[in-house]
Specification:
Elements: E1 5-10, E2 39-46, E3 54-57, E4 62-67, E5 72-77, E6 82-86, E7 95-97, E8 103-108, E9 113-118, E10 124-129, E11 138-142, E12 145-150, E13 159-164, E14 171-173, E15 187-189, E16 198-202, E17 209-215, E18 222-230, E19 240-243, E20 249-253, E21 260-264, E22 281-287, E23 293-298, E24 305-308, E25 317-319, E26 327-334, E27 340-346, E28 353-360, E29 369-372, E30 383-389, E31 399-407, E32 415-423, E33 429-434, E34 440-448, E35 457-465, E36 472-476, E37 480-482, E38 486-493, E39 501-508, E40 514-520, E41 526-532, E42 537-543, E43 552-561
Parallel strand pairs: 37-43
Antiparallel strand pairs: 1-18, 2-28, 3-4, 4-5, 5-6, 7-8, 8-9, 9-10, 11-12, 12-13, 13-14, 15-16, 16-17, 17-18, 19-20, 20-21, 22-23, 23-24, 24-25, 26-27, 27-28, 29-30, 30-33, 31-32, 31-34, 34-35, 36-38, 38-41, 39-40, 39-42, 42-43
């Protein structure tokens, strides 16, 4: 673990006294399951610097990614597929959605303004000037106002401003940093949804690292806490920061290998320590509305993103996006309902464009499920399926529901057999019994539907069930028939389950086999056909079988005699 020396100044009104430092240089999850992205798509955004921000619209199920290189915002659906592009957004940088998701606000540093975009039409509806040489870079919505971090070179440093749209006209107020000498435009963040009136600012990509907490519930920024991290110049500066939904935790990603920091809301020190096992250089952090924390890293060793439940020190989800696919700085975003995590990464294959990856149920733990079955089993007799769950944190409950589906010749698309409640052994093993009703290859699908903390998982197993045998005979009325005369051939089928159809083929010597007749046998099991014999002919009767009866075939030959 790298140890940081910090100086801090805390406002007297702060009530929390717990500061949590997170960092670890070891990873015990090397054998853990790395979940693949549920969907992904390449974006029309170059991977070159500079790179923008990402926000998720849960109402219209869209993801907005700003692209300052092209002065635009790319719009994607939840699968990552590009759905449009908002153009004319000068230097498009930070973004935030209105509370009802009807408006997307975009910081325009190259225009000293903030634009408002209709999230349905994807057209800019208004543009609000923030003042000469302000170059707003990051946005946050809290306390009924739109807050922005700003600071161009001409101003000699960064600051915080607000845009109030509640009155008869837009009102911009600058210089609200509370005396913090920001070196450049600070990065801003609030709790998911912007509730609680807490605004957190940090000096993005700068060292030493500075963080300030403001109470903006009254509509004005009141500084509540300030912390300055003293670090060796070789260490990277803050790349991302996030606030928990209850406003009690603040997490920063610093690009320092195996190291992230987590503070209480007052940024003070304390004895409570939470250690997160990670490997790589953390460059993205994001809380979900349900309190789950995602940490993205570059140069990760097999895992690119870790997901932690509230208060947990061990990740419940490990996400691997593939070799050389690095998570981008502040490249994480949650759906407002916490159902999906969106990850913005480079494209390791080409290295040209960015890729948007969607992980379903990312806040839930992923486990493995394997199922074994006998290689063969008799028809109409019980067989036992054995299921085994892999290790997972948090552990599975003692009993779980398992949905069982059986696919066979009678139900090729699968027949639901209901939900079984099974008890797990100490090794997470369970058994399920079933009686095959059809023969051939029988495939069982077992699905654990998941719960509030575990994602669904499915496994299959196949067993060969021999079908019942029947009899099929084929005989002619004579071994030799005069050339040009009809031969009578009779097929007789024994007992079957359902199918009673037989096909009879004729193949003259040197000729092709042709179907003579296909029909259901009579109640005596017989099918009689007549056929004009011109050459020696071989007749073949074919029964195709059914779900419980094996296919059968029989042949007979009739010679063509002299006229």
């Amino acid at each position: 673990m790298r140890v940081r020396h910090a100086t801090s100044r805390t406002a007297a009104t702060a009530t929390s006294t717990v500061a949590v430092l997170l960092g670890c240089a070891c990873l015990t999850g090397a054998g853990a399951q790395a979940a693949a992205a549920d969907s992904q798509a390449t974006l029309p955004i170059s991977a070159d610097w500079p790179r923008g921000e990402m926000v998720v619209d849960g109402v219209h199920r869209r993801v907005f990614i700003s692209d300052p290189k092209t002065d635009s915002v790319v719009v994607a659906d939840y699968t990552g597929k590009t759905a449009g592009r908002i153009t004319g957004e000068a230097g498009s940088a930070g973004m935030v959605l209105s509370e009802d998701s009807s408006t997307l606000y975009v910081a325009l540093p190259d225009a000293d303004a903030i634009s408002a975009v209709d999230t349905v039409t994807l057209k800019e509806t208004a543009r609000y000037a923030t003042g000469a040489d302000t170059a707003p870079l990051d946005l946050a919505l809290a306390g009924g106002k739109l807050w922005f971090g700003y600071g161009a070179y001409a101003r000699g440093g960064g600051n915080i401003g607000s845009l109030d749209l509640s009155g008869t006209g837009p009102a911009v107020t600058l210089d609200q940093s509370g005396g913090v000498p920001w070196e450049s435009a600070p990065q801003l963040t609030t709790a998911p949804g912007g509730g609680g009136g807490v605004l957190v600012a940090g000096n993005k990509d700068r060292s030493p690292e500075e963080i300030a907490v403001y109470d903006v519930s009254s509509g004005t920024a009141q500084q509540r806490a300030y912390r300055k991290e003293i670090m060796p110049e070789t260490l990277a500066g803050q790349e991302d920061l996030a606030v928990s939904p209850d406003g009690r935790e603040i997490v920063t990603a610093d690009g320092v290998e195996d190291f992230v920091m987590n503070f209480a809301a007052d940024l003070s020190g304390g004895k409570s320590v939470r250690t997160l096992p990670i490997q790589g250089e953390p460059n993205a952090v994001e809380y979900a509305a349900n309190g789950a924390l995602a940490v993205g890293v570059r140069y990760g060793k097999g895992v690119d993103t870790y997901v932690y439940r509230p208060g947990d020190s061990w990740a419940t989800r490990f996400v691997s996006t593939g070799l050389y696919n690095s998570v981008q700085p502040h490249g994480l975003a949650w759906a407002p309902d916490s159902s999906r995590l969106f990850i913005l990464t480079s494209d390791g294959a080409s290295g040209k464009n960015l890729v948007l990856r969607t992980i379903d149920d990312a806040a839930k733990a992923v486990t493995k499920l394997s199922v074994s079955a006998p290689a063969k089993a008799p028809l109409d007799r019980k067989l036992t399926l054995t299921g085994t769950f892999g290790f997972v944190r948090p552990d599975l409950p003692g009993s779980v529901p398992i949905e069982v589906t059986r696919a066979d010749l009678a139900s090729p698309k699968g027949k639901p057999l209901g939900t079984r409640t099974v008890w797990l052994s100490r090794d997470r093993v369970f058994t399920i019994e079933d009686t095959p009703q059809a023969g051939g290859k029988v495939t069982y699908t077992l699905r654990y539907p998941g719960d509030a903390t575990h994602a669904p998982v499915t496994a299959t197993a196949a067993v060969v069930v021999p079908r019942n045998r029947t009899t099929l005979t084929l005989a002619g009325n004579a071994k030799t028939v005069k050339t040009g005369k009809n031969a009578t051939v009779t097929a007789k089928l024994g007992k079957t389950w359902k199918e009673r159809k037989v096909s009879v083929y004729a193949q003259p010597a040197g000729g092709a086999k042709k179907l003579v007749r296909t029909a259901v046998v009579n109640r005596d099991g017989k099918l009689v056909i007549t056929y004009k014999v011109t050459k020696n002919t071989t007749f073949t009767a074919v029964f195709g079988g059914d779900a419980r009866t094996e296919p059968m075939q029989a042949t007979t030959s009739v010679k063509a005699g002299k006229r």
